[in-house]
Amino acid sequence: MDKAKRRELKSSYREALPDAGVYRIVNSGSGKSLIGSTTNLKSLENKLAFSRSQNMPGVLDHRLRKDAREFGMEALTLEVLERLDVTPGMSEAQIRSDLAVLEALWREKLDSSLLY
What we know:
The chain has helices spanning 3-15, 41-53, 62-71, 92-109, and strands at residues 21-27, 33-38, 76-83. It is of the alpha+beta class.
């Protein structure tokens, strides 16, 4: 790959808006859910897929590990609850702040006894 093409690809990667949002990982074995937010939903999807393919619960959030070992990795499913509309003018801090608000709203909507 020539340097101009490489520079162009790097530039477009840096300028791409993040795919941020609130998610829920549901354990079908126990009925419990883990609510969270991230600035990179695709990375989270890849992390879960990798942990499934390698049968490695240690890659997951510490609150999920015990149940993943007990019920198996296939019992965990990822649901994107809401995507954040990120605009080019938003700072990283503003994105994280908006995600925290959205996550808090989703925590209020769902039954707290079924959350990790």
